[in-house]
What we know:
Elements: H1 3-16, E1 20-23, E2 31-37, E3 40-48, H2 49-89, E4 98-99, H3 101-104, E5 112-113, E6 118-124, H4 130-140, E7 146-152, E8 159-167, E9 174-182, H5 183-197
Parallel strand pairs: 6-7
Antiparallel strand pairs: 1-3, 2-3, 4-5, 7-8, 8-9
Helix pairs in contact: 2-5
Amino acid sequence: MCDNCAKLQKQIGHANNYGVSVLGAASFAVYANIVRHGSRTTSLLIVDKRTSSNRKEKTMGKFSQSKGIRGEREVIDLLQPIVDTAYQAAGLEPIKLKRTSSMQADGGGCDVHGLPWLALECKWDESYQVDAWWRQCLQQAQPGQMPALVYKKNHRPWRARLWLYIAFGGSELVADLVADVSIEDFLRYFQKCLQLCLPKGRDNANL
């Protein structure tokens, strides 16, 4: 064994003591050595699995956060024209819906700010944990707020989950149901709720 090979073997043994693996190919390399034997070239790639795993987790976390922000903006873009039309019809100055993710870091809150009667959560995630998201939505909602969850996964349309109150035949018998509906149905329901919740006249424009 040549001196270079002996040195390399010691380096590999030292690396293995710290949880570093020797692989023939890998996605993330933190160390590489090339030993030449005449016309032949031998490559050994040493990869720290912990480093590559941490990098992957950080990258996935940033990607998920970016997708969540993009989803909240998409939902606001769907709701804002309805808000503008309803407020103008009531003689009010339209409010501007805003993301509240920055506020959540300070102690909770819904994803969209601007409508006091609505507790809206937006989720764009491949885990598709709709039941868990709905429980979070109910926990975030304050007394007097209507909880609503708008959710999706990649290459799928937005959907919504909310409480529906159904009266039977005009009687006092009312059933409250949890329903998953298309985004189109949710927008129609949102429009009706908004019209009912809007005050009439500019004196109450801050409500």
